[in-house]
Amino acid sequence: MADPFEVRLRFTNTLQHLSASTTSSQKAALYALKYRDMDEDLHSCILEQLERNNMNNRANIMYFLEPFCDLAQKEGAASFLDMVRRDIVRIVDAVAPRDGSGAANVKVVRRVLPGLESRGVLARETVVGLEEGLREREVHPDHIGAGDVMGDEEGGGDAGDESQTAKGTSQENGVEERTTPTKRTEGGVEKRNGIMRVDKKVVEQRIEEDRERNKRLRESMWAVGGEDEEELDKMWEEGSDVNEDDFVMAEEEAAERKQAAFFDST
User: Fold this and answer.
1) Per-residue three-class SS string for 102-163
2) Any idea what DSSP says for residue 40?
3) Tens-place pLDDT, residues 28-77
4) 68: how many CB neighbours lie within 10 A of its CB?
5) Which residue intervals of the chain are DSSP H helices?
6) Cα–Cα distance between 52 and 184 in angstroms, integer?
7) Three-state SS for 224?
8) Cα–Cα distances in Å, from 138 out to 96, 105, 107, 204, 237?
9) N or C: which end of the chain has fewer CB within 10 A?
10) In this structure, how many other beta carbons lie within 10 angstroms of the beta carbon of residue 266?
């Protein structure tokens, strides 16, 4: 029997290195199903990594849930599905926190929730309730830009006053004190006196991963099987009906080919 501590450590390391590639998600899912007898411990690793890592890693783990649940259904590992269903509110709160620090992940959650619903993991009522709660967590979408600054929802109204206090001086009991700005970094988002700034490296990593996901999405749209009949059926269904313009174009192309053949023969 494998050492539970080692299994937990390796699965945590796998989650930390998740990326936009399909291979990394499949590797993590297969590892979890291999040690399904430790399902509760492995699920707790997912929750811990969602609450501790930066917003990019949280998004990767959220995307990972779709293939993970899909594979768990095929392998009959219903316990993983039950735990995801049980803790879905906690998962969403970790990926897109209410304080606005994970506003860039709101779209990620909205993409994954319908997939979990279609797989039967989540009920329609649950998805609708979660999507309604996400509306309050959205901020301006351009905040993801490097160096852009946005106000904290909890302290946004007092952010300007706090920053002024940090730059100035205060007098108490006749003694002049110079205050220094407080700085706190969490999940790749730097918080300074109620103002949040996204780390530049996190932004660049997110751009690359989003580009990779969009690339795979376009590839899947054009993917066809190896059989010619399947490709023909796909073209037949997606093609438009033949009309008079198509006949005119065919006649013009035939005339051009005839003319080209005449010049080649002379």
Assistant:
1) CHHHHHHHHHHHHHHHHCCCCCHHHHHHHHHHHHHHCCCHHHHCCCCEEECCCCHHHHHHHH
2) H
3) 999 999 999 999 999 999 999 998 888 888 999 999 999 999 999 999 99
4) 23
5) 4-16, 22-34, 39-52, 55-75, 78-86, 88-95, 106-118, 124-134, 159-167, 200-222, 228-238, 244-265
6) 14
7) coil
8) 9, 9, 9, 21, 39
9) C
10) 4
Place of tokens 């006196």: 193
Dig out the tokens for 237 from the structure: 């269904």
The pair of three-digit structure tokens given for residue 40, joined into one six-digit string: 């509760």
As given in the structure block, the two tokens for residue 177 are: 């004190």
Question: Which residue type does 60 have?
Answer: N
pLDDT in tens, 124-151: 999 999 998 888 777 544 444 434 333 3
How far apart are alpha carbons 23 and 216 in whole angstroms? 12
Given a contact cutoff of 8 angstroms between Cβ atoms, the answer to whether 186 and 235 are in contact is: no
